[in-house]
Amino acid sequence: MALTKEFLYDRLPGYPSCHGSTIAQRLNGEFIAAWFGGPHENHPETVVLFGRKRPQDDEWRDIRAIAGMTVPRPYGNAALFVEPGKDENEEVIWLFFIRSEGRHGSGWCLDCMTYYCRSTDGGWTWSPPRLLKDQWSFLIKNKPLRLRTGELAIPAYSDREDNSVLCVYSDEIDEWTFYGPVPAPPERPDIIQATLVAWPDGELQMYFRTSTGFIWRSQSFDDGRTWSVATPTELPNPDSGIDAVTLPDGRLVMVYNPTKKGRTPLWIRVSEDRGNTWGRHLVLEDEPGEYSYPAIILAQDGLLHITYTHRRERICHAWLDPNDL
To answer: Is 80 a residue whose pLDDT tops 80?
Structure first.
């Protein structure tokens, strides 16, 4: 199967700029995506947008704003996660997003907080947003996952401190616990916007965006409670967003910009030894412009689905068979 691509939309009136997408698949097979759009990033009319596409459909539909309509402040990165609910046939969709509070006047990300809400009707209505943590510049970029302990975990980072933590949610007590920050070498590079991956034996890894020109990595062998000192990988990166996912055959798939400057090209890269070395790659984009902030999932049919920013004007959706990598 060849790489296939489509746009979620051609143009959205009132939302000429977009960024920070996320994709998930509902239990019924429908794909859902969220991203922020508006006049430009950090504009008070920027909102979180949401759309859906059934596998048999040719296009995305029902694109609408789901956060930012009543609170006119800049909204940012979104992350989706879908799982079964407690009751039979129940489904829960988690949505995380960041919002500028406009209080400190200290800059876009420094003035933001992360919120989350849930939907049990397929994303048509949402619970009132709750703070992930009452801390300025406590932000997210990538999807959460369920640990082998049954807890929900999502990486978060501080743009003030340039470090990362793992946020772990207990359903039993409806409470978050924060583990970290992930230790870094004495020169203390910024390690932010982690993507979290897990293997059946319990090993967890976080891969980080940094300003060093490379993606960095940390490992945990105790369900995210402690983390190894972050170290650089061989993957170059221009301080731009990344995402990754593990495959049933043990391979690790990373989507990232493989350069030290600029946000093109955009690649898919594969590791067969849990990120110690990286082999073949597939080019998603290589034209001039910006192609950035990817999100990747493994769908129910075994295909990889990716969304990413296309020149800050549209969100692109790509999919492929991982056996072709």
So the answer is: yes
User: What pLDDT is stored for residue 111 in this prediction?
Assistant: 87
What pLDDT, in 10s, does the model give residues 11-32?
A: 999 999 999 999 999 999 999 9
Residue that the structure tokens 């082999």 belong to: 279
Using alpha carbons only, what angle is made at residue 268 by residues 290 and 19, rounded to the nearest 5 degrees?
35
- The encoded tokens of residue 164 equal 């990362």
Q: What are the angstrom distances between the C-alpha of 224 and each of 32, 147, 152, 246, 295? A: 28, 9, 11, 17, 22
Where residue 64 falls (left for φ over 0; alpha for ψ -120 to 50; beta otherwise) is beta
Report CA dihedral (141, 296, 242, 262) to the nearest 10 degrees: -120
Sheet with 112-119: strands ordered across: 75-84, 91-100, 112-119, 130-131
SS3 172: coil
C-alpha span between 258 and 214 (Å, rounded): 9
CA distance 93 to 26: 8
- Domain-wise residue ranges, the chain: 4-324
Contact 216, 234 (CB under 8 A): no
Amino acid at site 247: L
Mean pLDDT (whole number) for 228-246: 98
| pLDDT given at position 107 | 58
The CB density around residue 283, as the number of other CB atoms within 10 Å, is 11
Q: Which residues contact 10 (CB under 8 A, 6 or more apart)?
A: 314
Q: What is the mean pLDDT of residues 242-262?
A: 98
* Average predicted confidence (pLDDT) for the chain: 95
88: left (phi over 0), alpha (psi -120 to 50) or beta: beta
For residue 104, the model assigns a pLDDT of 53
Average pLDDT over residues 209-218: 97
- Indicate the pairing of strand 243-246 with strand 231-236: unpaired
CATH class for the region spanning 4-324: mainly beta
Between CA 64 and CA 52 the distance in angstroms is 10
d(CA 38, CA 42) in angstroms, rounded, equals 9
pTM (2 d.p.): 0.97
